[in-house]
Specification:
Elements (H helix, E strand, L loop, with lengths): L4 E7 L1 E2 L2 E2 L7 H14 L4 E6 L2 H14 L3 E6 L6 H21 L4 E4 L4 H4 L9 H7 L11 H16 L6 E2 L1
Parallel strand pairs: 1-4, 4-5, 5-6, 6-7
Antiparallel strand pairs: 2-3
Amino acid sequence: MDIKGVCYDVGRAYSGYFLTRRVFDPATTRRELQIIRDDLHCNAVRFQGTDVGRLITAATDALKLGGLQVWLSPEQFEKSREATLAYLVQAATAAEPLREQFPGQLVFCVGTESTLFTRGIVPGKTVNQRLANIRRPGLRSGPYAQQLQAFLAEAAERVRKVFHGPPSR
């Protein structure tokens, strides 16, 4: 499949309040999904956000609209590895009925900027502190690649227990 897609933010909450898309209106989302499919000629959309309910609502609408593969990317900020893993399992459990209803159309993403968003991979209590600790030439060859790969492997393993479609990392 030749994938042509966009990222769609359903709202990101940080420290208990939404920084982006404070108001989530499903009717607006449905209209924007039609624009993404029909006017932008996309065949995929990646939903990113914090609230699992919003993610599932948007994914459901995209799948019912047809013609769009959905990539679901639940995100958390400044949470521990364990809290983030539990959250990913919760989101994957919520996504599994959609995967069953729309086989082959839903991909679950287990890592969205995990190095920066999740505590415990790169030292630092905040994103800014973690950014300061990252050294080039990059994470793959950098000192934190092993922690990142271990986190992603554990996330994929836990998600596969409740989501039986393809996980992406």
